[in-house]
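quick one: NAP bound model?
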Amino acid sequence: MKIDGMVAVVTGAGSGLGLATARRLAKLGAAVAVLDLSQSAAEAAAAEIGGIGIAADVSDPAAVEAAFDKIEATLDTPRIVVSCAGIGTASRILPRDGSLTIDAFAKALNVNLLGTYAVMNIAARAMAKAEPLDADGARGVIVNTSSVAFEDGQIGQAAYSASKGGVASMTLPAARELARFGIRVMAIAPGLFETAMSAGLPDDIRAEILKSVPFPSRMGDADEYARLVQAIVETPMLNGTTIRLDAAARMPIK
Ligand code: NAP
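yep, here:
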């Protein structure tokens, strides 16, 4: 599908992978709606790329629905929807203080999995009603963000890995179901990328993780994620799968 002239929605685009994606899509001619938890971050990103900024918590379906209504009324039906909103959580199942960690587990699932599902659900409903765009009958593309932790989660990542595993697992059934509407669904599972989320990692842990990144042995650059989003949108045969974007890394145990 072409990008030029399309309406795109990028969640979590106030920062990191989402911001790089919003920038790239805008540069390629899309009208981009930036969704983020923070109104100021959404507006700052939107001002930079000439898009619109909307504050919405993706784990609140009513807020996501209101945001999509506004985007449809202001721009048009979104044809490219990229979910980058997410939280990185680290919590052992059994922390030393003996507390239960069920609330932290629920929060990770609410934002990372339910939030991604809500955006996909609301976006697909809008796309399904829109006109096909090409000879294949394409109506839109949805790209969700998993993580390499969906396969090789480290100690402390049970909740995060479960949430990202859900994102990866729903990709194929979603693509199969939405095929009749001409909507593709893909997921990207990044390794370690240089963003606000990874900025808090202590140096020793960062160095340890980088030892498990064969080549190139460095953190990913957010625009490399955005370039993969571009390739997915532009390549019609990419559908129903999760692509690891990780320089052949397999995360160590801790
Ligand atoms: P980031 O720089 O922290 O960006 C995430 C953005 O999502 C932030 O702007 C954040 O807003 C927003 N957000 C958080 N919760 C939200 C919610 N409930 N509703 C709407 N927006 C929300 O992190 P990133 O590294 O770009 O992460 C993007 C995605 O990639 C995440 O899903 C993450 O799990 C995944 N990922 C990242 C890496 C990595 O190494 N960076 C690796 C694998 C996967 P606030 O800043 O206001 O909280």
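The chain has a mean pLDDT of 97.
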